[in-house]
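We modelled each protein-ligand pair independently. The example shown here corresponds to the adenosine-5'-triphosphate entry; the chain sequence is given first, followed by the ligand as SMILES.
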Amino acid sequence: MRTFVAEQLTAVFRIVILIAMSLYFMISMNVGMTAIATAPIPFILAYSIIFRKEMHEGFRRCDEEEGRVSSAVQENLTGVRVVRAFANEGRERDRFEKLNEKYTGMWVHMGHVIGKFFSTQDVLCGLQILLVTVFGAVFAVQGRMTSGEYVAFVAYNGMLSFPIRRLGRMLSEMAKAGVSMDRLAYVMNSEPEHDRPGAVDADMTGDIRFENVRFGYEEGHEIIKGVDFTVPHGTTLGILGSTGSGKSTLMLLLDKLYELPEGQGRITVGGVDIRDIRTEHLRRNIAMVLQEPYLFSRSIADNIAMAGDHMDLAEVEKAAQAACLTEAIDGFREGFNTFVGERGVTLSGGQKQRTAIARALTQDAPIMVLDDSLSAVDNQTDAKIRASLEERFGTATIIIISHRITTLSKADQVIVLEDGRITERGTPEELKTAGGVYQKIYEIQLGLREGGAAHGE
Ligand SMILES: Nc1ncnc2c1ncn2[C@@H]1O[C@H](COP(=O)(O)OP(=O)(O)OP(=O)(O)O)[C@@H](O)[C@H]1O
Ligand SMILES: [Mg+2]
């Protein structure tokens, strides 16, 4: 688009003035000849316009293919460890090679298309000049035009045909810029999140209720199939369930990271539908540790202090302490200023998780969600973190998703989710002997039973 604006758009004035002036002089010299000279111009322009469509389509395909090639490169660079671990370099190189060849082929094809367009256009313009030269000569011989006028007319016609040809090329450039414009517009015009009119900053220290919640990411493919539960304020809810049963989805819905469509049930906090709560307010009051902790390429302190604008180090240290991270940080040469690298490559999985927990703790929110956030820490640390959470969040509502029974054992209430439905609910004590999935996993993890179930650890 920049190229188009800088190189083509500025030429428009020159082209318009050239055409207008040439036409003016030509008409003032000989109207009949001007009519002959301009007769082919609509055809030349029409040809350009028809061709523009084909080119637009071609450029769009090239652009999309370029996107595929660059995402393949980006994926391979960020996932280089996976590629190497699977000794997959050769296959990935082949895949890139193939994509790249396809992309190259597309441009070669476009080269042919553009070549065809330019050469045909040149022929058409050449014919127009031929027309003027031949008819002008006839006119001059017949005496309807002096030979001086003839020479001048041919010269002016040259000045006319150059900008016409240029206009055609500009159309092709416009097709290219149009594609970029469409792709930019796709991003720029995507609808931003907005609150309902009259959205409130509701009190977030009430009970959390899911009422007959149904949700699917895609039309006709329901993931959450009617879920009902209440988490009284200040209590802890544990969620257990096989992979893909929809646990994370429930939490994303609670945080409005996906909007629950109208008529698909309700989620309320303190009796207020979260659709009517200002999104920023809602998220500030839910400390969410997502299943895949994402760290930024900044220092550990900066990663922890993300929730606030001006957080002092004491606060960061306190959160790190509660997340059992201090020891690890003390082991780093630069302590809290240790740079964690892109996506936290320099940290262990458990350190990453604990950094994410510390980050959530700084939020000091009345609701905390831990989505499988203790999976990469050992049992002892797990217990320590939960104890410090309890201490710190005596009054908070906590939702813990976990595959580990010990993590869930201190919860006030546990629900078991299977395929988007709640199949068991009760206190950990009750579920231990209820004869369901919870009991089975409990026995496997306690070593009372042989593994083999999806939850076995
Ligand atoms: N963004 C998405 N688009 C489409 N489908 C999705 C998306 N995210 C998740 N799913 C699908 O929704 C289902 C539930 O996913 P979800 O992440 O809620 O499972 P989960 O219970 O958290 O599993 P896990 O224990 O492995 O974390 C899965 O079948 C998954 O394939
Ligand atoms: Mg999950």
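Residues 217, 223, 241, 243-249, 291, 372 surround adenosine-5'-triphosphate (ligand 1) (CB under 6 Å).
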